[in-house]
Backbone:
């Protein structure tokens, strides 16, 4: 288990929220990974009216990109850190008809079972202290046959190891970039099927993990909170 905890994550991202939208990572990593996920969503769902949950949504950059690329999608974004959501308030207002922002924990999602067609998680998974619990929650809120699309830094080769396990960990603390094999273990344990993985090389290489929620439901715990259904929640950000 990582020594990195939610208190550290909250402090780090509250501080980072001041410059998050201007970070060079928006160009080197976030933009390319966002485009890769959106391409996969469009390939599978086209213009269908789907429900998408973006976990670790930050200031809403990715959620807004999903909405702009897929105008028939309804998008929910959750983030643990209120400071991140607050910095995106103008973005939330601009997309109020299609995006709902909620402060919540990836390990205790405030939605009922099978609420979403697609769950995305882009470049935040290494900050989750209990990655197994987060993946189980992602599985729980997906409809049978729904898709999880999770991107994080690819650290299995020497260059990626240097970038993520040395440089990033040196700056951010004891974060954990899971290996491709570890992702397969996590997804399999949560009950996902038909998992695929694609490495995207570049200055900041990343791994796109995709899997399908099984058609026949396993025994899954009830939601931790009452399901969030009102779109007015975003107004409190």
Residues:
């Amino acid at each position: 288990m990582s020594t990195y905890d939610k208190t550290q994550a909250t402090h780090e991202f509250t501080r980072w929220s001041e410059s998050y939208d201007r970070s060079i990572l928006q160009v080197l990593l976030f933009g390319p990974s966002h485009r890769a996920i959106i391409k996969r969503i469009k390939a599978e769902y086209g213009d269908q009216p789907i429900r998408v949950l973006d976990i670790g949504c930050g200031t809403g950059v990715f959620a807004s990109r999903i909405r702009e690329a897929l105008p028939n999608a309804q998008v929910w974004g959750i983030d643990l850190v209120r400071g991140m959501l607050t910095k995106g308030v103008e973005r939330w207002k601009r997309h109020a008809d299609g995006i709902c922002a909620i402060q919540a924990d990836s390990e205790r999602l405030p939605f009922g079972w099978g609420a979403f067609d697609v769950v995305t998680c882009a470049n935040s998974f290494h900050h989750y202290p209990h990655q197994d619990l987060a993946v189980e929650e992602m599985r729980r809120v997906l409809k049978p046959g729904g898709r999880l699309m999770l991107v994080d830094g690819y650290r299995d080769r020497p260059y990626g190891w240097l970038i993520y396990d040395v440089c990033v960990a040196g700056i951010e603390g004891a974060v954990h970039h899971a290996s491709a094999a570890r992702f397969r273990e996590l997804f399999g344990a949560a009950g996902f099927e038909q998992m695929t993985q694609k490495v995207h090389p570049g200055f900041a290489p990343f791994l796109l993990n995709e899997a399908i929620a099984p058609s026949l439901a396993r025994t899954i715990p009830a939601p931790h909170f009452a399901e969030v259904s009102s779109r007015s929640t975003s107004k409190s950000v």
In short: DSSP finds eight helices and seven strands in the chain. Helices lie at 6-16, 25-45, 61-69, 82-87, 89-94, 131-141, 158-172, 180-190. The domain at 6-236 is CATH 3.40.50.150 (Rossmann fold). Confidence is low (pLDDT under 50) at residues 230-237.
